[in-house]
Specification:
alpha/beta, 12 strands, 284 residues, four-stranded antiparallel beta sheet, 42% helix
Length: 284
């Protein structure tokens, strides 16, 4: 989901759940020192170089706690940010700023970390024909945010969930009896508008998937030489995707294989956060 408006609309229930997790029966620390309304401002400051993502979610956290909150934004999702740079100024009820700070930063740091890590791999793929994809290896209840962050970092989304497309993996093939039978059953039972992707682990499986009429063939945990041979066998009759422990450190090994897509679970499940802080809170 790469539309910021759609993200905000669909993300509200998850943001509310995160706030409920952090504020079960009130923020007792804030209520001790700020028992009544006081307008205030705080600065959102980046403490690392990276790619920012999740500013709409950051704003929405405070908006749920204070409908009068306003924001002077100095960056947009997908922008490069620098250590020490001012990203935004938040103005509103100091109680809301204090109570929402951690939740807002948790979302922003996580999403920006994913965008930053994704962007570092996208840059390594520049000049090749290969597009970087994410996977469903996301944090529970964070998928909508994490897949958005991948797009902000320059990557592309694979299917959002199990309803989005047909992917016949090893256990689907085992249940059906063979790749050929699995593809035949898929063609018979899903709409023609859905493409059918088949996971393969060796070149014999690649040949069978091509002959069965798969639209996309995943080359799972194959060596670069095997991938090159698989691309030759497929010869444009299906799109190709490679997968299996793809990280920033080994992505260079697949650049010359000729695959159309590379999917990496690491860009969502292993990306470190981007260090961002809310500082200099004061009354205005």
């Amino acid at each position: 989901m790469n539309d910021p408006v759609a993200l905000e609309i669909n993300a509200d229930r998850y943001i509310r759940m995160a706030l409920e997790e952090d504020i079960t029966s009130g923020d007792i620390s804030t209520n001790c020192v700020m028992p009544g309304y006081q307008k205030g401002q705080a600065e959102l400051i980046c403490k690392q170089d990276g790619i920012i993502a999740g500013l709409g979610v950051f704003k929405r956290v405070f908006g749920m706690l204070d409908s009068t909150a306003s924001f002077d934004m100095r960056a947009s999702d997908g922008d490069s940010v620098k250590n020490g740079g001012l990203i935004a100024v938040v103005t509103g009820d100091i109680r809301a700023i204090l109570s929402g700070e951690r939740t807002a930063l948790n979302f922003l740091q996580r999403m920006s970390g994913i965008a930053t890590y994704t962007n570092s791999i996208v840059k390594l793929l520049e000049g090749s024909k290969t597009t970087l994809l994410d996977t469903r290896k996301t944090t529970p209840n964070m998928r909508i945010f994490e897949k958005y962050a991948v797009r902000a970092g320059g990557g592309s989304n694979h299917r959002y969930n199990l309803s989005d497309g047909v992917m016949l993996k090893d256990n689907h093939i085992g249940a059906a009896g063979s790749i050929t039978k699995a593809v035949q059953m898929a063609k018979a039972n899903v709409s023609f508008v859905h493409k059918i992707e088949v996971e393969t682990e060796n070149l014999d499986m690649v040949r069978e998937a091509v002959e069965a009429g798969a639209d996309i063939i995943m080359l799972d945990n194959m060596s670069p030489d095997e991938m090159k041979e698989a691309v030759k066998i497929i010869d444009g009759r299906a799109l190709t995707e490679c997968s299996g422990n793809i990280t920033r450190e080994n992505i260079k090994n697949i650049i010359d294989t000729g695959v159309d897509f590379v999917s990496s679970g690491a860009i969502t499940h292993s990306a470190p956060i981007l260090d961002i802080s809310l500082k200099n809170l004061h009354a205005v």
